[in-house]
Every structure is written in structure tokens, then in C-alpha cells.
Specification:
Structural class of chain C: alpha+beta
Shape of chain B: globular
Largest interface: A-B, 24 and 30 residues
Largest sheet of chain C: 2 strands, antiparallel
Order of helices and strands of chain B: EHEHEHEHEHEHEEHHEEHEEHEHEHE
Distance between the termini of chain C: 56 Å
Cofactor (chain C): [4Fe-4S] cluster
Protein name (chain C): Pyruvate ferredoxin oxidoreductase delta subunit
CATH architecture of the largest domain in chain B: 3-Layer(aba) Sandwich
CATH topology of the largest domain in chain B: Rossmann fold
Chains: A alpha/beta (192), B alpha/beta (393), C alpha+beta (125)
Organism (chain C): Thermosediminibacter litoriperuensis
Shape of chain C: extended
Strand order of the largest sheet of chain B: 9-11-10-13-14-15
CATH class of the largest domain in chain B: Alpha Beta
Helix content of chain C: 10-25%
CATH superfamily of the largest domain in chain B: Thiamin diphosphate (ThDP)-binding fold, Pyr/PP domains
CATH class of the largest domain in chain C: Alpha Beta
Strand content of chain C: 15-25%
CATH architecture of the largest domain in chain C: 2-Layer Sandwich
Number of helices of chain C: 3
CATH topology of the largest domain in chain C: Alpha-Beta Plaits
Structural class of chain B: alpha/beta
Helix content of chain B: 40-55%
Strand order of the largest sheet of chain C: 1-4
Order of helices and strands of chain C: EHEEHEH
Oligomer: heterotrimer
InterPro entries (chain C): 4Fe4S_Fe-S-bd (IPR017896), 4Fe4S_Fe_S_CS (IPR017900), PorD_KorD (IPR011898)
Keywords (chain C): 4Fe-4S, Iron, Iron-sulfur, Metal-binding, Pyruvate, Repeat
Radius of gyration of chain B: 21 Å
Number of strands of chain C: 4
Chain lengths: 192, 393, 125
């Protein structure tokens, strides 16, 4: 089996984790890679902790089970740290991308992990300034591209522009805002 | 021309329906099928299809309206899941007995109760004996491909039966997956224009259909349905080949994965077959001769193909995502074991019921099955014939 | 019988035959029991279901044809806007015609009385 990159998103209902997982899948698919993007469905409502998943590979993906050992964990809501089991099943060299005002070192202490790589960014502030609302999902994708380097950033932006244009035909300001948010996130992410 | 896109299973099926452009779609929304109806009705609203969309008040009415439309000479479809299919139950038998080529995707979901919205196959298995053809799909690609072929299978003059296209609820329906879609013209040419043979709106040739049938004729007409099911196997193979020519993806009644030299094999439907293939690959790298058999067609049952595919295997595990409460295993297990009995070569066949109500089938579960099969192969001993996978016990 | 060929569209799947007989085998019957002969209910004589029969009183009848309108089995035969006769081969003897008749021109008579009268007439002959 070819190497499959597995991603787990932690968020609260309404923050756009499902949308982000599916948009990421669409963008990566357009780059010729094989992807899956799927949310975990339950009785969740707005505000309840939820998860979403991605698999990315250069070969067709056969597996249809849940993601148990994600290589990458993306946390959209900092208040989930300590509530949702963010570190569960993550290997030693796992990557964490976290929406928070804290530094990677502070987050590392909160998570109680020694190994792995931690990326932080204030996606709420970025989205407020660029989109006008605290919807951290698109900036997190910018941080994801920075953290993984799975796709060249410029190409990713081209695909995102296409997708956002499809999704928000009648709201050009939303498209520009989101693109700006992704770009700022890509630049402003802190790593440790 | 074909292009690679990322779509969820529901989006892929709605896309196929759009390209088929049926005359009538009558449907009622139910989780996890809702998106199919929602997306398709937006195609209707935007004028992207010529379909008459009938928003009915229940699934019983949905199938009834599809029956009326098909009897009138239209290419008709519906779609449902779980409780919706259960509510449709009696009318599905009527569609089959009236030999109406209605194609309907079923997004597999557990039947209540306890109430649950997630995937298992209890809904489809409930209509196993209704006389409809049942196709199963491992992923969004197969769901899309099966929908397009289903139209031709259903309408073939030797068949004329409803076709149910199954895919796993949420696992396939709501997961984004990469697939190749055909262009509209290729699909249009492949499905062709529907030419009904007997239909009520044919004023030149008045007929009556759905007639009262007593003990003096009912039996004979049921026997005709069996014949149509038999004929369907050849038709499905032919159409699967023809579909291969336009898409590069050929389909048969079953998919044999690394069974040629396999010692141990797993038989499983739908998305779990992909997971099983992944595990088989890993085991093969460690020297275990593991294989997977995925029935694409469950009704009619491809007994000859299955017997041929499994004849060299020493131990087989059948994975059932539905319970029969017979206390002797799941539905597919009964069929597979029945078919292998004729070989008289002492293949050990065991059963695992898994994934009820959406319980995840994990890689280690499948690995455990293969490990137990290896033990059976080596010792020749079966301790327990029917087991549960991923159950807390 | 021709040998079985699944691609012969008329085999087993049924022909458009009009002559369905109760001794026909499954593959000789029309597919799904479809009936290709319109109006064949006429060949099914329901008259012997009748235990009472309508009898027309010519003197009282005003030819309003209420009976003709109401008969659920189309067993009142009218001609030129006038009552002609009953179709006793199909009349089930429901009595609706007698009920709706505004001038009581239809009597419902038990079949065994009719039989008795017939036999009496025969004796007289």
C-alpha cells in the first residue's frame, strides 16, 4: 500500500471543519492526488465538538475505515484542547496545527507532548480582519499547506480561487477575503 | 472524454442521474440519501434536466409514483434509505412483479430500532427477496458507474426489472472521493432513449397490467421473474463489458481481488471491501496468501462465479453487515456456504457480523479475521462458526 | 417447444398472445400477466352470480334511463334513447336499477321463482 497521509480535524459544529475538509480534498484532488474527505456524523449541533477527516495519497485509496492514527491534527477551536482528545492515536512525529493566540511552546505544555511538531496561528483574528467574521476554517488550510508542503502554495491558491468562485458566485468580497485569510495564515503561522 | 473530479457519493449519484436525465423522479428525503434528492431537485429547478420531479409525501408514494410513471412508459427513478425503504417494501414487490425497469439508489443505513442513522445493510437485505436486482458499490466511482449501467440492465428486454443501486451511508455517501466522470454525451449515448415495450399510454395497443392473479397463474408469473433474474446475469456481464469500452472500467458480477493463489479469503460487500483489500495487500507483503471477493451483484446471486473464484481457497470468512436472527449467521454467509457445499472439498466457511449501526470496521478487525482464517487453515479446526467483529464482548 | 434462449425476447418473458388458457406453461404466458386484449371482461359471464333478477315492467317504464346510468355492470341495454332489455349474461342482480327507478318499473324477482315459472310454462306446453 502506498503511503497515505491522514488528517483529523477538531472543531465545534458551525466552524466549518467539514467544509474545510471537503474543500481541502477538492483542491488536493485537482492536483492529481487521491483524497478522501469525510466528517464524523453524530447528533452534533452548533457548538458541539466534532471531527472531520482527510486521507491523501499518490495512489488510489481503498481504505474506508475511520482515521485512527492521524499524521496531522488540525484544531479549529483552542477551547477543545483538554476537552476533545486531540493527541489520541497521533504518532511521535505527528504534526499539530492549532488555532490559538498562544505560542507553540505553550500549546506543547497544554497538550503534554514532548515530540511532534506544533504550528500555531490566530485564525480567528485573521478571519475577522480579512473576512469580517470569525470563521477560522480557510486560514487553517493556509497553515496546513505551510506545515506539510504537500502542494506548492501558488498552485493551491489558484485552485482555491476557482473553488471559492464556484461557491460564492454572487459574493466576490467573500472570495477575496478568504484568499487573503489563507495567504496571511500561510505567512503568519508559528512553528516549533 | 472523461475527467477526474472529487465528489461525495451522493453528489456522484446525483450527477449520474442528471446525465441519465430520466423522465420522472419521485422521491422523499431521508438521511443519508437526502442530498441526492436535494441536488437532483436543484438540477430540475435550474432546468438542467427535463425530468418531472414529483415531491411525494412518503416513500410508499415515491415508489408508487415511480410505478405509475414506469407503467405509463416513462423512465422513472426514486431514491431512499433505511426506514424509507422499509416503508416502500410492499410496493417494491409490485414494481418487480409488474416488470417495471425502475432504477433506485439506496444509501444503506441501519433499520430502527434502536433508532440510528448510520451505515449497515439491514435495509437492502430486507428487500433481498423482493425480486429487484441489487448492485453494490465500494466507493463513489462504483456508485456512479452502477447507476449508469443500472438503467440499461433494468430496461433490457430479457430483464425488465427494478434495479437497486446500493452504497454505504455516510462512509460513501458523505465522503469526498476522487472519481472519473464521463461527459454528458457519452452517458446519453450509453443509456440511449428508453423504448418501453408495453405501456399504458400506448393508445394504439391498449393493455391491462398489474392484473389480479390467482392460484392458477400467480406461480407461473413468479417463475417468469426467476427467469428474468437468470437472464439478468448475462445482461449485467454484457453491459459491464460495454461500459468498460466507454470508461476503461469493466464490470462483472463479482470482483476477485488476489484470489488466484489465495489460501484465505474474505467475502464482503460495499465500502468494507476496500478496507479488506488494503489489509490483504499488507498481509501479502508478509507472505500470507490473502484475497478478497466482493460480490457486485447480490441479487441475482452469482453462484457460478463465486464457486469458481473460491474453489482453491482453504478457508473463507464471510463478513455480513446485517443480522438475520436465524442464530446461524448473516444473509451472505448463508448464500456463500450454500454455494460452496457443491464443491465437496471441505472449504471452511465462517461468518463475522460487523459494522451494525455504523460501527467502524478497522484495519485490525480485518487483520484479525485473516489471522483466524490462517489458524483454521493450519489446524483444520473451526471453533466458532459465527462471530462478531468490533463488538464489545 | 423451442429450446431455451435467454436472448429470445419472446421466450419466457411472454408473447403478446391474446389467447391465455389455464393450461399454459409459465413460459407460454404473457410477461407479468399483461393482458393485450382490450375489453375482455365481456367474455367473463357474471350472470350466474345472480340470486335475484331485475324484471322490466313495460307499462310503468317512462324511459328516463336512470337504471342505465346507475348500473355498475353496464347490463342495462338501451337503444334509441329507450330501455331495451337487461343483459342477463352479466347482470349480477345487485338491485341498484330497481332502487333508482322513480316509477318502480323494475321488480327484483328471486331466481328460483323465475325457474319455477319457466318450469310451469314448460308443463303447460
Amino acid at each position: 500500500m502506498a503511503k497515505v497521509l491522514e488528517i483529523r480535524w477538531h472543531a465545534r459544529g458551525g466552524q466549518g471543519a467539514k467544509t474545510a475538509a471537503l474543500m481541502l480534498a477538492e483542491s488536493v484532488a485537482e492536483m492529481g492526488k487521491y483524497v478522501q474527505g469525510f466528517p464524523e456524523y453524530g447528533p452534533e449541533r452548533m457548538g458541539a465538538p466534532i471531527q472531520a477527516f482527510n486521507r491523501i495519497s499518490d495512489e488510489p485509496i481503498y481504505i474506508h475505515s475511520n482515521v485512527i492514527n492521524p499524521n496531522i491534527v488540525i484544531v479549529l477551536d483552542p477551547t477543545l484542547i483538554g476537552k476533545a482528545n486531540v493527541t489520541e492515536g497521533v504518532p511521535e512525529d505527528g504534526i499539530y496545527i492549532i488555532n490559538t493566540t498562544k505560542t507553540p511552546a505553550e500549546v506543547r505544555e497544554m497538550l503534554g507532548i514532548k515530540s511532534g511538531k506544533i504550528y500555531t496561528l490566530d485564525a480567528n483574528q485573521i478571519s475577522l480582519e480579512t473576512i469580517g467574521r470569525a470563521i477560522p476554517n480557510t486560514p487553517m488550510m493556509g497553515a496546513f499547506i505551510r506545515a506539510t508542503g504537500i502542494i506548492p502554495f501558488d498552485q493551491f491558491m489558484t485552485h482555491m480561487r476557482e473553488q471559492l468562485s464556484k461557491k460564492f458566485k454572487s459574493k466576490p468580497e467573500v472570495i477575496e477575503g478568504n484568499l487573503k485569510a489563507i495567504e496571511r495564515a500561510y505567512r503568519e503561522v508559528n512553528a516549533e | 472524454m472523461k475527467s477526474k473530479v472529487a465528489l461525495t457519493g451522493n453528489e456522484a449519484v446525483a450527477q449520474a442521474m442528471k446525465q441519465i436525465n430520466p423522465d420522472v423522479v419521485a422521491a422523499y428525503p431521508i438521511t443519508p440519501q437526502t442530498e441526492i434528492v436535494q441536488i437532483f431537485s436543484s438540477f430540475v429547478a435550474n432546468g438542467e434536466v427535463d425530468t418531472e420531479f414529483v415531491a411525494v409525501e412518503s416513500e410508499h408514494s415515491a415508489m408508487s409514483a415511480a410505478i405509475g410513471a414506469a407503467a405509463g412508459g416513462a423512465r422513472a427513478m426514486t431514491a431512499t434509505s433505511s426506514q424509507g425503504l422499509a416503508l416502500m417494501f410492499e410496493v417494491v414487490y409490485i414494481a418487480a412483479s409488474m416488470r417495471l425497469p425502475i432504477v433506485f439508489p439506496v444509501v444503506n443505513r441501519a433499520l430502527s430500532g434502536p433508532i440510528n442513522i448510520h451505515c449497515d445493510h439491514s435495509d437492502a437485505m430486507g428487500l433481498r427477496d423482493s425480486g429487484v436486482i441489487q448492485l453494490f458499490s465500494e466507493n463513489a466511482q462504483e456508485a456512479y458507474d452502477n447507476m449508469i449501467q443500472a438503467v440499461r440492465i433494468a430496461e433490457h428486454s430479457d430483464v425488465r426489472l427494478p434495479v437497486m443501486v446500493n452504497m454505504d451511508g455516510f462512509i460513501t455517501s458523505h465522503a469526498m472521493d476522487v472519481l472519473e466522470v464521463l461527459d454528458d454525451e457519452t452517458v446519453r449515448n450509453f443509456v440511449g432513449t428508453y423504448v418501453p415495450e408495453d405501456y399504458l399510454l400506448d393508445a394504439e395497443n391498449p393493455i391491462s397490467i398489474g392484473n389480479f392473479d390467482m392460484y392458477d397463474f400467480y406461480f407461473e408469473h413468479k417463475r417468469q421473474q426467476v427467469e428474468a433474474m437468470k437472464a439478468a446475469k448475462e445482461v449485467i456481464r454484457e453491459i459491464g463489458k460495454e461500459f468498460g469500452r466507454i470508461s476503461g472500467r469493466e464490470y462483472g458480477l463479482i470482483e476477485s481481488y488476489k484470489l488466484d493463489d489465495a489460501d484465505v479469503a474474505v467475502v464482503v460487500l460495499n465500502s468494507a471491501a476496500g478496507t479488506a483489500k488494503g489489509v490483504a495487500d499488507e498481509l501479502r507483503a508478509n507472505g500470507v496468501k490473502a484475497g478478497v471477493l466482493k460480490p457486485r451483484v447480490y441479487r441475482p446471486f452469482p453462484q457460478d462465479e463465486i464457486r469458481e473464484a473460491l474453489k482453491g481457497v482453504k478457508a473463507v470468512a464471510v463478513l455480513d453487515r446485517a443480522e438475520t436472527f436465524s442464530t446461524c449467521g448473516g444473509p451472505i454467509f448463508a448464500d456463500i456456504r450454500n454455494v460452496l457445499y457443491d464443491l465437496k472439498n471441505d472449504i471452511k466457511v465462517v461468518n463475522y457480523v460487523y459494522g451494525l449501526g455504523g460501527r467502524d470496521l478497522r484495519l485490525e478487525h480485518v487483520a484479525q479475521v485473516f489471522e483466524e482464517l490462517e489458524n483454521i487453515r493450519k489446524t483444520g479446526r473451526v471453533d466458532e462458526t459465527v462471530k462478531y467483529l468490533g463488538l464489545r464482548e | 417447444m423451442t429450446p431455451y434462449n435467454p436472448f429470445n425476447r419472446n421466450f419466457g418473458t411472454g408473447t403478446r398472445t391474446k389467447a391465455v388458457r389455464p393450461d399454459m406453461k409459465w413460459h407460454e404466458l404473457t410477461r407479468a400477466g399483461n393482458i393485450y386484449e382490450p375489453g375482455n371482461a365481456n367474455t367473463y359471464e357474471t350472470g350466474d352470480w345472480r340470486s335475484i333478477r331485475p324484471v322490466w315492467n313495460k307499462e310503468r317504464c317512462i324511459h328516463c334511463l336512470m337504471c342505465w346510468r346507475y348500473c355498475p355492470d353496464a347490463s342495462v341495454i338501451a337503444k334509441g334513447g329507450k330501455f331495451e332489455t337487461f343483459d342477463y349474461k352479466h347482470c349480477k342482480g345487485c338491485g341498484i336499477c330497481a332502487k333508482v327507478c322513480p316509477v318502480n318499473a323494475i321488480d327484483m324477482v328471486p331466481e328460483d321463482e323465475i325457474k319455477k315459472v319457466k318450469e310451469a310454462n314448460k308443463d303447460e306446453e
